[in-house]
Amino acid sequence: xxxxxxxxxxxxxxxxxxxxxxxxxxxxxxxxxxxxxxxxxxxxxxxxxxxxxxxxxxxxxxxxxxxxxxxxxxxxxxxxxxxxxxxxxxxxxxxxxxxxxxxxxxxxxxxxxxxxxxxxxxxxxxxxxxxxxxxxxxxxxxxxxxxxxxxxxxxxxxxxxxxxxxxxxxxxxxxxxxxxxxxxxxxxxxxxxxxxxxxxxxxxxxxxxxxxxxxxxxxxxxxxxxxxxxxxxxxxxxxxxxxxxxxxxxxxxxxxxxxxxxxxxxxxxxxxxxxxxxxxxxxxxxxxxxxxxxxxxxxxxx
Amino acid sequence: xxxxxxxxxxxxxxxxxxxxxxxxxxxxxxxxxxxxxxxxxxxxxxxxxxxxxxxxxxxxxxxxxxxxxxxxxxxxxxxxxxxxxxxxxxxxxxxxxxxxxxxxxxxxxxxxxxxxxxxxxxxxxxxxxxxxxxxxxxxxxxxxxxxxxxxxxxxxxxxxxxxxxxxxxxxxxxxxxxxxxxxxxxxxxxxxxxxxxxxxxxxxxxxxxxxxxxxxxxxxxxxxxxxxxxxxxxxxxxxxxxxxxxxxx
Lengths: 302, 249
Hints:
By secondary structure, chain A is an alpha/beta fold. Chain A is about 35% helix and about 25% strand. Chain A has helices spanning about 40-50, 90-100, 105-115, 130-140, 160-175, 185-190, 210-215, 230-240, 255-265, 280-290; strands at about 1-10, 15-25, 30-35, 55-60, 60-65, 75, 145-150, 180, 195-200, 205-210, 220-225, 240-245, 250-255, 270-275. The longest helix of chain B has about 40 residues, at about 95-130.
């Protein structure tokens, strides 16, 4: 498990990250969400010791500095274009393999895994963003690390690439590894992450499962169609459930389908339809970070 | 540590700039040693028994800054292309990363300096022979033993000065400008004020390890090397402190 505790970073007067603590579990994909400028990249850099700040991060109860070969513990992709543009893709990976004491033959395996074998001898300066991301992922998995820290890995990938990345990340976590991944593609995150850590203005907003964050959203509701709607309305009022009348039923928030079903049965209301209408991760995210947006577009000004 | 050093050496050997610097060096040596000094040598110059020694000294001082660019680029490329994050996460200690770079830079500078020191006289001899001047080169008084350490020290010293400037500035354009401007302008201006004491300036002391300059206070080659070493050790300590404290970006 990765345990980040009391992470903090300040740039002169501006606080980038403040007292941030969370865990990243093994065997799971943990999404890292936050509006632009929330401090996601800074947090990842603090976790790796690249930025100097306060707090500690342990990987299986040990700081990264206590491992003899850290790149065999944590694989990173913090920036797609982090390579010398004049050094071939193969040489770039060989340099990293050498530094991490990883057998050079592993380079061919990772090139194959990310689909870059055919351009291995090309200089990546002219690679597309998608190809650069793949090279970055190859670098991250070079040392077969137990932990992966990926910052916006889907940026620049085409739909096929995104689908490949999603499957790759899920498979990697399923092998007992932990993947900590930030992304702005919330629909993607909803499909691949098990847990999420949400931050805003450098502070923790939520640390929970994907289901947990969605179910807590005010956008999550239960649609109920019943034999006697007025009786159902009275029931909702009795239990302080919020509801909206729809054409042929009620849309109730603040109660689960189980609760509504049980209470309706007790009151003798015949339920004709009971359906959970979940919020999307996007709804939940926007609701959670509504007060933490640092850069927000103006509304309708021309 | 050994893995980190190997990786740094691989970084040097897998970029075109290293080979471009070597090619320019060969070109310059060909121009100045083969043609200007060897082919166009006058009878008077050929009778000078220190001719080859002078050629070696001038070649080392002329190409020292050029060779030192390799170490400078090894550092500044990491920040320019943000590969420093890989370098630092591959190691469990920033000190190891710094010294791996320093060792790789030292290794390259020694090989480069030896190459220049061997190629320069050979090209001069070839130039003389190709022109067919009679009488040929007179017997030379090379004093190989002191010349060997002096040449290697000066070549290494240039690399260390550039390495330190790169570690402190981290910005590639700034560092390259600094290594050319500092000896050419800053030291020259300071030398006007310091007069004989200008021997205590970094590049002046380094060059004085190889060639005595009558404008400065007379010191032995060893003393000049000691002055330059103080700058190098001090610079490495400052680089180390900054490398430990700064964010890696």
